[in-house]
Amino acid sequence: MHFLVLQHDPGTHPAAFTPLIEAAGHHITTIQLDAGAALPPLDGVDALWVMGGAQDVFEEDRFPWLVAEKVFIREAVLDRGLPYFGICLGHQLLADALGGRCDYGGAETGVCEVMPLPDAELFDGMAAPFPVAQWHGVQVTDLPPGARLTARSEACPVQGMRVGARAFSVQSHPEVLPGTITHWAQLPSAAALLDRAFGPGGAAVFEAQVGAHAEIFAANVRRLFDNWCRAAGIPSAPARPASTEQPT
User: Fold this and answer.
1) Annotated catalytic residue: which of 8, 13, 88, 229?
2) 245: buried, middle or exposed (CB in 10 Å: 19+, 13-18, 0-12)?
3) Of residues 69, 108, 175, 207, which has the active-site annotation?
4) Which CATH number among 3.40.50.880, 3.30.559.10, 3.40.50.300, 3.40.366.10 corresponds to the domain 2-176+216-232?
5) For residue 133, which phi and psi values (nearest 5 degrees)?
6) 136: enclosing H helix or E strand
7) Cis peptide preceding 131, ω within 30 of 0
8) What is the pTM of this model?
9) Is 88 an annotated catalytic residue?
10) How far apart are CA 151 and CA 114, in angstroms?
11) What is the pLDDT of residues 147-198, one digit of tens each?
């Protein structure tokens, strides 16, 4: 199947999800919106993934392409019913595009615990609560019409939501791998934010937290992908070839 991935800077890609998507036999097309790439037609797209980014969801004056992106998300989710997975900014964009509201607050930086709600199938097989990487200063404050809350944390009440049968999003960064934070912190403004959060050398502190949780992060990203695929009706593993053996 064809996965369309919307990115908002080069570093915020599907990361740990990428080998899972590819191993399942799916094709990924990436659109780098912050670099001026145009949104393609949705014809032929089987799933839409929208990643994080340094932009705030309501900064349309600074980043005019956010306007078109929200229209695109609305068409994909509401008009076409495409499977959707949003991470961090992609979570906030889903809420904003469908009539919810986001605002500053609920800030979390580092590895924090998230509590899945009962019957939140995206988190089946995961501990309650489970640890996950967080890096945000904006949160969803009002769910869009028809959305269901799927997870919360102490600082941020809307950690996950589901819209309809096949659209899911999370405020956290389940995609991070060892080395991801170090890569993000190559941007001076990002490194400065981490220094404010953790003190001097903040990127190394956050990176050490990710490394200490690498095993559970890897297990959880596998579960998230499998659970999302099951709910969205998308294969999470290659199809087995039909047997050519004749019965005896």
Assistant:
1) 88
2) exposed
3) 175
4) 3.40.50.880
5) -75, 140
6) strand 130-142
7) no
8) 0.95
9) yes
10) 7
11) 999 999 999 999 999 999 999 999 999 999 999 999 999 999 999 999 999 9
